[in-house]
Amino acid sequence: MRTVGVLGGTFDPIHLGHLRPAEEVREALQLAELRLIPARIPPHRARPRVCAETRAALVRAAVADHPGATVDERELHREGPSYTVDTLAELRAELGPVSLCLILGLDTFRGLPGWSRWRRLFDYAHLVVTERPGAGGSLPAALRAELEQRRCTDPAELRRSVAGRVCFQSVTPVDISATGIRRALACGRSVRYLVPEPVRERLAREGLYGYPQL
Ligand SMILES: Nc1ncnc2c1ncn2[C@@H]1O[C@H](COP(=O)(O)OP(=O)(O)OP(=O)(O)O)[C@@H](O)[C@H]1O
Ligand SMILES: O=C(O)c1ccc[n+]([C@@H]2O[C@H](COP(=O)([O-])O)[C@@H](O)[C@H]2O)c1
Q1: How far apart are CA 213 and CA 208, in angstroms?
Q2: What is the pLDDT of residues 129-148, one digit of tens each?
Q3: Which CDD domains match (predicted)?
Q4: CA pair distance 139, 51, nearest whole angstrom
Q5: What is the ipTM of this complex?
Q6: Which one of 43, 123, 132, 168 is most buried, by most CB atoms within 10 A?
Q7: Spatial contact of 25 and 5, defined as CB atoms under 8 Å apart
Q8: Index of the ligand 2 atom closest to the CA of residue 11
Q9: Considering only CA atoms, which residue is closest to atom 5 of ligand 2?
Q10: Is the beta carbon of 38 within 6 A of some atom in ligand 1?
Q11: In angstroms, what CA-CA distances link 73 with 1, 79, 167, 178, 198?
């Protein structure tokens, strides 16, 4: 079955810790398409430092030369908090019977029971959980119970149904966070090789996050 992967995020800003794990998932699952979905209003965090349009422009710059990746801007056009369940419901209605895979870092997966209508997510998509340095520790009981029903060990299984399974995908650990990048920029430190070069160039050109303007 055709398989589509989606990675949602605040992307404040996008960095190689988003892109390398997603690229490895794209290869491992043989995704027909990888969609990056910037959140306009991320539901569970303080307001992003940079507006949604600029964060999305940086995501576009990050993947401009990658034929396997696209930027899906639907959350930018939706009022209210950018609930993932709403995004997945829309995608499911548009894409029909594809295998739809929501990609999450382990830190984000752990918070799933706090998400809006979180059990409905499994009606619309599979979950592909990637490692993230520093994201170890136990999972909430509600999530462990859900995993007992849904966990699969072979990623190929995700291609055989449209939604409802959870797979852990091993990826190269990349210890980069947007918080670290914002901090580095605020202190005037380099972010070269932490973000894609076209993103760094745009940060510099526009003086974003306190980047000293050229
Ligand atoms: N270094 C990383 N390795 C694996 N997954 C990551 C990494 N950074 C972010 N992710 C995942 O990407 C998605 C979007 O993350 P987000 O945009 O919040 O980035 P972040 O670096 O965690 O941001 P912040 O530091 O501002 O909290 C989440 O599912 C998150 O788990
Ligand atoms: O739908 C929810 O309730 C929900 C709660 C927290 C986070 N999310 C989504 O998870 C993704 C990562 O969130 P964040 O805040 O870590 O960037 C992003 O796409 C958010 O919209 C979604």
Answers
A1: 8
A2: 999 999 988 999 999 999 99
A3: NMNAT
A4: 32
A5: 0.99
A6: 132
A7: yes
A8: 17
A9: 115
A10: no
A11: 25, 13, 26, 20, 19
